[in-house]
Write a structure and sequence with these properties.
By secondary structure, the protein is α+β, with helices and mostly antiparallel strands. It is built from nine helices and twelve strands.
Amino acid sequence: MVRMLVASMAMSIATVSMACDTCGCRDKAPEATQVKAAEKAQACQTTCATTGAQAAVTQVAGEGAACSEADKAACIAKGEECATACATACEGEPNAAQASLVGYMPKMTFKVGDESTCCPKTAAALAKKNSNHMHYMVNNVSYDDKAEAMGAHAKQLHEYMMDLVRIQYAVNGECVACPDSAKAMAASCTSKNLQYKVGPATFDSAEAAIKASVMAWNAAKNVSMQYAVGDEVTTCSKSAGAMAEKASCSVEYVVNGQRTNCSQTAKYMQTVASVESALKALETASAGDA
């Protein structure tokens, strides 16, 4: 069953290809033959982002920050105050101030010289101040090209998504690849309990773990892509193309209420939102198993 879930998840999560310098897009809007070429993504404007898909847009632009829920209010501030709040919000493992399991989502960070931060605003300021180059860090690998880093981060998120629906054995909270080894370790000492891990969540029964895996898979699958032409929204790209041609305007992509003119940015947003939704589902399942 778990293999089926993983296979289905692999089909449901959109991956990101290479991107343009502005917003991560090289292809055109849906039904490109019917729709005028989209303008550069307005969603790639400068704001200090909150979390999830909206943060993905500003992170693509290199001018916003993916802050935790606890720092959401602080990130409404402008200028240096905003940069400082964002820079201190997402280093290392999740802590009590961060939003539960969502804090485990892999992040893109930025490095200037010997200084690292998860806030592009801070990184850009450091680069300007020190006349230095900003590097994009994904999974401990440095990238000079933003588009390449975006693709790597999307791939990392996609692979992480697979772990969020994979059930593994655990002994005292630590994953053990071999079921026989896990059972033997648990039996060797009464203080060691055989448990089941789904992503960062741990469950006492196989039934609870399976339920959590299904919940995470469904939550990710339900993050859909919509298409907007003005105030009209549809789930059909062909309909959006016809609507745009009739209205003589471009199509916007909508993910969780956030809009962008760039298809590749939208796919990235969908990947981020899918991982976030899966983590939230695991948190709900874990709370119910407590």
